[in-house]
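re: that complex we talked abt at group meeting.

here r the seqs, copy pasted straight from the sheet so there may be weird spacing, ignore it
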Amino acid sequence: MRILMTLLLLLAAAGGTAVVLTRSPRRQVFAMAANGLILALLFETLQAPDVALAEIVIGAVALPLMFLVILASARMDRAPRRPDGGR
Amino acid sequence: MMNALPWAVSAGLLAIGLYGMVTSRHFVHLIGCLSVVQASTYVLLLAAGFRWNAIAPIFSSFAPGTPAVDPVVQALVLTDIVVGATVTALLLALALELHKRRGTLDPDQLRPLSRHRKG
Amino acid sequence: MNARARLLTFLFACAGLGPAVVVLILHLPRFGAHALPYGDLINDSAPRERHVANAVSAVNFDYRGIDTLGEEFMLLCAVTGVVVLLRSKRGERVDAPAGRVEGRSLRPRSDAVSGVTRLLAPVTALFGLTVALHGMTTPGGGFQGGVIVASAISMVFVGEGYRSWRKCAPSVAFDATEGAGAALYALCGFASLLAGLPFLTNVLPLGTLRHVFSGGLMLIENAGVTLAVAGGFTVLFGEFLEETRVETRDDES
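got the structure back, here u go
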């Protein structure tokens, strides 16, 4: 149990570092999903199943979906805007 | 080492998340680093409530009275995760509107008192 | 501040706070030393006084119910903020064509994806409702169950495409669901006031321990949270996905 806990804590630190050091936003989304799963395992080991359930759903489903949609929407063709805001 | 490892991991995640936010080149990457900072608080709170050889605070299979970990911090972290995701969505919507108006999401090119803007 | 100045300021702050953090870490209680006393009190009294097996749900909906009311309204405000930001320029039409990205081909949806989501989306929605309903006896509750239901609805988008998903999740219905959930939670508090007791006191019969319908007023609050979270996240996904469609008319502004 102590070994598992130590391992998961170190993995959580590594996961957080990976999220920060992945500079490309599209790749960072997948690092965030992996980090969410690692955190969910850590929370489960800390005897918090409610929190682990919430972290799995949010970290692996809701947040990556929202990030990917915003990134896709930012890459879309839009009509060019004049600098003062009009079309 | 095990006695202080969760506190150290939490402090480390906070530091690296803040470093990512300070040196970010893309606002969506910055919002991702904010989620790392949030994760550091979750680790700290849940580790504060932990107790060795105790069960989760759910007494459906165990009799009430068995040593269990702290439910108060779990309640805090649980609502925090869900509502934090919603606030992240609001930040992402703001970033998208910024991109629509200025065409870029680079913080260094979006300084408000830039000389190229009129007014 | 330019980037170098930001980084230097950050490193300076770290150098100043770093030793303090290290001293703090060494002086905090040992991990597992169980230094928080309220948890024991609640673990003792939740099954006995509130007849609820899940102490975390008891804290969320009964002992600290007013904090959860605040969290629900935070959720409502954040979703309203997103809707105001994104719908104000776009309007409320839902039949815009899909946006294109330069240099990227559009591949048709594969049959495997459609088949798997057709099987999994109803099962996931049912699982989400189960998790939400059994919040008093097993790990789970309104927050987790609501997000699972919202993700089941977004699976329809993955498998069937935009138009089917729009028919399945009309934004008016889910706006109303979210508001209804938040209002239901607030009305629970007023029900206690009508009985002459403080806001959000548990006034319904409490049931038996480990039974699905135990906890009294907590069940209705749980249902309110499920509706609000499911509605809120579906509206959020809807607003974001609408942003990937092309604008078909000029802005009035």
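couple things i noticed - Chain C is about 70% helix and 0% strand. The radius of gyration of chain C is 24 Å.
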